[in-house]
Amino acid sequence: xxxxxxxxxxxxxxxxxxxxxxxxxxxxxxxxxxxxxxxxxxxxxxxxxxxxxxxxxxxx
Length: 60
Description:
single chain, 60 residues, mainly alpha, 73% helix
């Protein structure tokens, strides 16, 4: 595996942790805060943009 695969896996793991609100024991709970909601909206917008770009690149 090259470094791009490892980077992609790290991005997926971080994205899942960010969306679900998983946190280490003893830290503050931010999963239902306003900042996390805005972060999820921006993450969704970025995913949609990349999906459109990928569709246009492969679809023609």
